Amino acid sequence: MADMFADEDSARFFQMIQMLQRSTMLHMGYLPDQEGKFHYDLLEAKEGIEVIRMFQKKTDGNLNAQEVQLLRTVISELQMQFTKAPQLHRERQSEQAQSDVIRETFSQPQDGPIEDLSTSVDEGEE
């Protein structure tokens, strides 16, 4: 990563931006935590985006063109993912609910749905 930037300070600055970016993506539910769990906290995600935007304002005039573009790209991507996060969260909740139903059916088969397939075709035609 250091090869991409003009100096070590620039590389460290963008390491900090990348840490904030990962944290923001984690709070939007795009990345799992260390235990493999997904989190959904849009207030924290929004704060992460705002902190990166603050860095953008505070470094205005101190970054080269490549660094300015990289920072804009990170912010833009996070903002776009922020708008998609609620749908992702709803999809994950739906998948989890279906998984819970299946798990419950296998752990408590007597309580599961029953479909009677014992009637013959001839009996159904009468």
Structural class call reads mainly alpha
Strand elements, count: 0
Mean pLDDT across all amino acids:
87
Count structural domains: 1
The separation of the N and C termini measures: 76 Å
Question: How large is the count of helical segments?
Answer: 4
Beta-strand residue percentage: under 5%
Explain how this protein is built.
With 126 residues, the protein is mainly α. The protein has one domain. The protein is built from four helices and no strands.
Topology:
Elements: H1 8-27, H2 42-58, H3 65-107, H4 121-125
Helix pairs in contact: 1-2, 1-3, 2-3
Structure keywords:
126 residues; mainly alpha; rod-shaped
Quick gist of this model?
With 126 residues, the chain is mainly alpha-helical. It contains four helices and no strands.
